[in-house]
Amino acid sequence: ESLILSYISSPRIPKVKLFGYSGQYMVLVMELLGPSLDSIIKKLPDKKMSIRCVCNIAYQLISILETIHNNNIIHRDIKPANIAIGIQEDNKNKYIYVLDFGLSKKYRSDTTKRHFSFSKNNPLIGNARYSSINALEGGTQSRRDDLESIGYLLLYLLLGKLPWQGKVSHSKDDKYYKIREIKKQST
After folding, report:
1. End-to-end C-alpha distance for the chain, whole angstroms
2. Is 105 exposed, middle or buried (0-12, 13-18, 19+ CB in 10 A)?
3. What percent of the chain has pLDDT over 70?
4. What are phi and psi of 28, to 5 degrees?
5. Which residue of the set 77, 100, 145, 146 is catalytic?
6. On the chain, which terminus has fewer CB atoms closer than 10 Å, C or N?
7. Handedness of CA 114, 118, 123, 127 (dihedral sign)
8. Residue 146 appears among annotated catalytic residues
9. CB neighbours (10 Å) of residue 101?
10. What is the pLDDT of residues 48-105, one digit of tens each?
11. Which phi-psi region, left, alpha or beta, contains residue 113 (left: φ > 0; alpha: ψ -120 to 50)?
């Protein structure tokens, strides 16, 4: 994660202050940010945001993702807990930041710009609630999967809930199957 964070240059990606070992622990120190979208939405009375607010978030998020993708990286874990707002100082609280690059990876070569090969039967990487249909089907993730995840995140912010939330499942595979089928049927 620290390598990816130091690799991507963007004002909306947290700046790495320090990384390494402290005794037996790995340490990653980043700039201080405000609350995540997850914690903000949980505090709202009706648990959803206005369309104006969501459009502002969408615009910023797509711009940040473009920068990430232009650096040949896919995030693979877009969700409200991984998006934060800035802190009050210097009016940074008007901007969002993308966090948690622990599941990120390169999707194409830096030199040739060729995409790495597609495969099936991959384990799900990321959160099933916000993952793309392709990821739930075991396909290799790419930029389109990050964009689809943004769509689900925006839908969640607008509605306060996703149609596949709270479905009872007997196993993880059953849960993923139900989520995938509901996503496929949604317009």
Report:
1. 35
2. middle
3. 97
4. -135, 115
5. 77
6. C
7. positive
8. no
9. 22
10. 999 999 999 999 999 999 999 999 999 999 999 999 998 866 666 689 999 999 999 9
11. left
Q: For the chain, how many residues are written?
A: 187
Cα–Cα distance for residue pair 31/17, rounded to 1 Å: 7
DSSP, collapsed to helix, strand or coil, labels residue 36 as strand
CB 69 within 8 A of CB 143: yes
**Amino acid in position 63:** S
CA distances to 54, 90, 94, 126, 178 from 34, rounded to whole Å, are 18, 13, 11, 23, 34
pTM more than 0.85: yes
- Please state the φ and ψ torsions of residue 74, each to the nearest 5 degrees: -115, 145
The answer, yes or no, to whether residue 186 has pLDDT greater than 70, is: yes
Is the CB of residue 36 less than 8 Å from the CB of residue 80?
Answer: yes
Distance, CA of 164 to CA of 12 (rounded, Å) = 30
Q: Give residue 159's identity as a one-letter amino acid code.
A: L
